[in-house]
Design a protein that fits this description.
heterotrimer, A: alpha/beta, Rossmann fold, C: alpha/beta, Beta Polymerase, domain 2, 29% helix
C-alpha cells in the first residue's frame, strides 16, 4: 500500500489506535481453531490490547482464517462494508494466498487480494499461535508507520474491486431462503 | 462560583477514577486466570480510539437517545455526594437521584430501539426486565434505612452514622443492597442484557464510533453513581479520600465475585431476585419497625 | 449374513425374479434391482423393520452411460444394513421419489438434482440447496473439469519466479 501523508492529529490517533485493536469474532473456515489458544492463558492476546468483539460495527480487524467459498465471500463483503473506517484485514493461512490445498475446487476462491484489500498475510496451514502474535506486532508497527492503508485503497479503486467481485461471483446480493 | 468548581471536581473524579478502576479490574481478572493482563490505562486508550473513527448514524432518534442517556447520567452524578464533597448541598435527596437515573436508562432504551436491529430490541427488553428484578428489594431496604434515621438526604444519612456503620446495624439490609448492586452494575452473573455471544452485544449492537465512546463514558459514570450511593448510605462517615478507598474495595469485591460465576437466564434473574433478597428485605423492614437494631 | 436377514432375502426372491445379492459383511448385504421394482422392494424392507433411511446417493458410471442410485437402509432392532441400488439411464435421468415413505428424502433428492441433474417425479421442491448462482454442468458428473472451471472463474496469483521448481530444488528432487 502506498504511503499516505498524515497530519499531526492522524499521527497521534494512529499511535493510540495501534494499542487497542478489536477483532471481529467471525470464524470462517478451518483456521478459526487457532484463535482460542491465542486468547487464553498461555499466549495471551489481551496484553496487547486486543479483544474479541461481537458486532462488525465496533470491530477494527477482520480475520479471514482459511478458505472462502463463493457463498461465504458474498457475506464477507457485506460484513466488510459494514465496518466503520479505519479497518484492517488479515489473511490467515495459505488458502488466502494462492488457494492452498483447494486450488482446483469449483467452489473456493484462489486469491483474496482481488476481492477485498488485505494488509497482512500469514503463511502456514495452520500457523501456530506464536506466528499469530508476531503478525499482530507487525500489524501494529505498520499502523504506527502509516503503511496499513487497505481501506483507502478500497475507496479509491472501488470499481476494480467491484468488477472482480462480479466476475467471480455473478452478483454480490444475497438471495437465499432466509432473506426472502 | 464555588458550585461550578465543585461540580467540575465531582465529574473529573468520576472520569479518571472510573476509567482507571475499570482497567484495574481487567488486570485482576487476568491475574485470576493466570496470565498477564492489559496495562491499567487500557480503558483510556479504548475510549479515545472509539471517538476517533468515522461511524454511521441511523436517524435523529438514535442520536438523541444516546445524548439523552449521557446527559442524564452526568446530571445524576453531579448530585451524588462523594464523602464530604457535596456539589449541591441541601439538594441531594435520594428520590431526586433515583428519578434522574431512570432518565439515563430510558434514553438508552429509546435510542437503541430506534436503530432497527432486532438484537437491540431483545437486549433492551431484557435490561428493563432485569431492572424490574433488582429495584424492588433495593428500594425496600433503603426505605428501612430512611425510616430509621428519619431523613431522606444522602449526606445526612452519611453523617448520622456516628456510632457505627449502617452495615453493622442492619446486616440483612446491607447484604440485600450489595446483591442488588451486582445486578445494577451489569456484572456476571447478572449480565444478561449485554451477553456478547448470545445476542451480539444486546443494546450496543448498532453503535459505531463516536456513539460507542459516549456509551463507554456513560457506563463509567453510572458505575460511579451506583457504588457511590452504596458507600454513602451503608459504609459510615468518610471524607473524600476514605470514600475513594472504600469505593475501590467494593469494586474489587464485585470483580472477584463476577469473575468466577457464569451467566443467568433472564427468567432465572427475576425469580432469584423475588425469592431470597425480597424475603430478607421484608425481614429487615420488620426488624426496623419493631426496633430490633444492633 | 445373519439369520433374520437371510430370511428376508428369501422372501425377496419370491417378490422379484431378477435379483443380484452381494454379501459385504455379516450385517451388510447389497442388493441390485431393476428400476421398476425398486419401490416394492423398499416398502417391503421398510415393513420388515428396516425403517431408517441412512443416505440416498448416486454414482456416475460414465463408460456404461448410467447413473446408479443407492439407498442404505438400517434397522434399529438387529443392526443390519441393506444397500439397495438401481441403475438408470444417464441421458434422460428420471426416477420416482420416495418422499411418501421417508420425508427426509426430500432434501437428499434436492441435492441429487443439484449435483447430478437427476429429476425426481413426485418431488416438486427442486430448488438449489448448496450452490448459489450456478451456471455450468452439474458438478459431480465425471465430465465436468473442476480445475479448468476454477482457473477461469477465480484467477490465480502470478509469481515472478517459478516457485514449484524452487521448491523441488530445496527438497532435493532436482539438483539445482
Amino acid at each position: 500500500m502506498a504511503n499516505h501523508e498524515r497530519n499531526i492529529w492522524e499521527k497521534i490517533a494512529d499511535q493510540l489506535r495501534s494499542k487497542s485493536l478489536w477483532m471481529l469474532h467471525y470464524c470462517t473456515g478451518c483456521g478459526a481453531i487457532e484463535l482460542p489458544p491465542s486468547m487464553t492463558s498461555r499466549f495471551d492476546m489481551e496484553r496487547f490490547g486486543m479483544g474479541p468483539m461481537a458486532t462488525p460495527r465496533q470491530a477494527d480487524i477482520l480475520f479471514i482464517t482459511g478458505y472462502l467459498s463463493a457463498k461465504t465471500l458474498r457475506r464477507v463483503i457485506y460484513t466488510y462494508e459494514q465496518m466503520p473506517e479505519p479497518k484492517y484485514v488479515i489473511g490467515f493461512g495459505s488458502c488466502t494466498l494462492n488457494g492452498g490445498i483447494y486450488y482446483d475446487s469449483y467452489a473456493t476462491i484462489n486469491r483474496l487480494d482481488y476481492y477485498i484489500p488485505v494488509d497482512l498475510y500469514i503463511a502456514g496451514c495452520m500457523p501456530r499461535p506464536e506466528a499469530l502474535l508476531e503478525a499482530f506486532n507487525e500489524l501494529m508497527k505498520m499502523i504506527r508507520k502509516g503503511e496499513a492503508n487497505g481501506w483507502r485503497d478500497y475507496k479509491e479503486n472501488y470499481d476494480w474491486y467491484k468488477s472482480n467481485q462480479i466476475r467471480s461471483l455473478g452478483e454480490v446480493l444475497v438471495h437465499d431462503e432466509f432473506h426472502e | 462560583m464555588m458550585t461550578i468548581i465543585r461540580v467540575a471536581a465531582v465529574l473529573l473524579t468520576g472520569f479518571f477514577v472510573g476509567l482507571t478502576l475499570e482497567g484495574v479490574s481487567r488486570k485482576i481478572i487476568a491475574r485470576i486466570q493466570r496470565r498477564y493482563g492489559p496495562p491499567w490505562y487500557q480503558n483510556f486508550i479504548d475510549v479515545f480510539k472509539a471517538l476517533s473513527k468515522n461511524g454511521i448514524t441511523h436517524g435523529w432518534i438514535f442520536d438523541f437517545g444516546i445524548l439523552m442517556a449521557l446527559g442524564g447520567v452526568i446530571a445524576t452524578l453531579a448530585f451524588v455526594p462523594l464523602g464530604d464533597l457535596v456539589a449541591f448541598p441541601g439538594l441531594d435527596n435520594l428520590f431526586i437521584i433515583v428519578y434522574l437515573f431512570a432518565v439515563g436508562a430510558l434514553g438508552m432504551a429509546m435510542g437503541m430501539v430506534g436503530s432497527g436491529n432486532p438484537n437491540s430490541s431483545i437486549g433492551v427488553a431484557r435490561a428493563l426486565t432485569q431492572m424490574l428484578g433488582y429495584e424492588i428489594p433495593y428500594m425496600i431496604s433503603v426505605s428501612a434505612v430512611m425510616y430509621y434515621y428519619k431523613t431522606a438526604s444522602v449526606s445526612e444519612l452519611m453523617l448520622s452514622q456516628q456510632d457505627s456503620w449502617t452495615l453493622l446495624k442492619m446486616p440483612l439490609g446491607g447484604i440485600v443492597a450489595f446483591i442488588s448492586l451486582l445486578g445494577m452494575l451489569g456484572k456476571k452473573p447478572f449480565d444478561t442484557p449485554i451477553a456478547p455471544a448470545e445476542i451480539a452485544s444486546g443494546p450496543m449492537v448498532e453503535l459505531s464510533a463516536k456513539y460507542m465512546g459516549l456509551l463507554m463514558l456513560m457506563h463509567t459514570f453510572s458505575i460511579f453513581v451506583e457504588i457511590g450511593l452504596f458507600v454513602d448510605i451503608f459504609l459510615g462517615i468518610s471524607n473524600y479520600w476514605t470514600f475513594l478507598i472504600k469505593f475501590t474495595v467494593i469494586w474489587i469485591l464485585a470483580t472477584l465475585i463476577s469473575s468466577v460465576l457464569p451467566r443467568f437466564r433472564i427468567e432465572q434473574v427475576v425469580k432469584f431476585y423475588w425469592k431470597v433478597p425480597l424475603g430478607l428485605a421484608f425481614l429487615q423492614a420488620l426488624f426496623v419497625l419493631l426496633g430490633w437494631v444492633f | 449374513m445373519m439369520s433374520s436377514m437371510s430370511e428376508i432375502v428369501k422372501n425377496l426372491k419370491t417378490l422379484v425374479k431378477k435379483l443380484e445379492i452381494v454379501e459385504i459383511d455379516e450385517r451388510e448385504v447389497k442388493i441390485e434391482v431393476p428400476c421398476e421394482k425398486t419401490l416394492n422392494v423398499l416398502s417391503f424392507l421398510k415393513g420388515n423393520g428396516y425403517s431408517h433411511l441412512s443416505i440416498l446417493t448416486a454414482v456416475d458410471w460414465i463408460e456404461e452411460n448410467k447413473f446408479e442410485i443407492v439407498y442404505v437402509l438400517f434397522s434399529w432392532e438387529n443392526g443390519g444394513k441393506f444397500v439397495v441400488s438401481t441403475k438408470i439411464d444417464r441421458k434422460k435421468a428420471k426416477f420416482v421419489s420416495v418422499m411418501h415413505l421417508w420425508p427426509i428424502a426430500r432434501f437428499y433428492e434436492r441435492e441429487l438434482h443439484e449435483f447430478f441433474g437427476i429429476q425426481f417425479e413426485g418431488n416438486d421442491d427442486m430448488r438449489p440447496l448448496f450452490l448459489e448462482n450456478w451456471d455450468s454442468l452439474p458438478p459431480l458428473r465425471k465430465d465436468f473439469d473442476p480445475l479448468e472451471y476454477s482457473k477461469e472463474k477465480f484467477p490465480d496469483r502470478e509469481y515472478i519466479k517459478d516457485v514449484i521448481y524452487e521448491a523441488k530444488v530445496i527438497r532435493g528432487d532436482l539438483n539445482g
